[in-house]
Amino acid sequence: MKKLAFIAFVVFLFFLFYSAYEMRDFGNPPSNVRETFPDAKYKVTMDDRIIGKYNTTTGEWEYGAVEETGANNVVTSVVFDYRGYDTLGEATVLFTAIAGIMLLFGREKK
Amino acid sequence: MKNEEMNEGKMTVIVQTIAALLFPLALIFSFYVIMHGHLTPGGGFQGGAIGASAVVLLIVAYGVKHVEEKMTEGGFSVFESLGGLIFVVVAIFGLFLATSFLANFLVNEPIFGKIPGWGQAPLNSGGILPILNIAVGMKVIGGLSAVVLILALISREGEEK
To answer: What does the domain layout of chain B look like in residue ranges?
Structure first.
């Protein structure tokens, strides 16, 4: 069992370092996607589509999500704008959990 | 002396003083994380968890009986429901004023909808995102605080019996 755990650890460590090696530089705008995929106009990863937008008329990558939602933090614009339903569902889960706990353990009003 | 204090669910004076010092700082940090959710890492959930941990700090240091006199779980529950109501009402406004449910109808509008340029981080940007962040922060602060308070009260009553 310990051997198996060690082998799994090594395999995951390899994937971790490989993905860290393949990652683009921190804070780099996604305009370098054009250099990485010179002929791929639409086949880009998801965050490239959200952060950078390919303008078909000028052929340039634009600063997409910031202009669409006006938020600097693109993660927030995904969580609250592009995937707002998901956040509403999360808030509903929280509400349901609290309603259940108040129902189970709540005391009578004095 | 020490046993009596432990029986009342309190901790020592040192811990109480440090908790009283840290409580406003933790609340301020929580409000900062919520208000800057659309500019810096963080947001409603994270800031709400920080604010709830401030309440947990008070409960751990001063005991449930003392905290219960100042704030009740019913008030926290009302606060949480108010946050959920704000979220849904803002989302429905998007349905009527713009295209769809949860549409960002305030972006490009005069007050909230400023679009930041390169290197800028204005607080009044993001359209409805700051409002939704505040709503979710209210939900998480109220909800987690209510849960922790009521569970601490229940376990306290179980010890006394």
So the answer is: 2-160
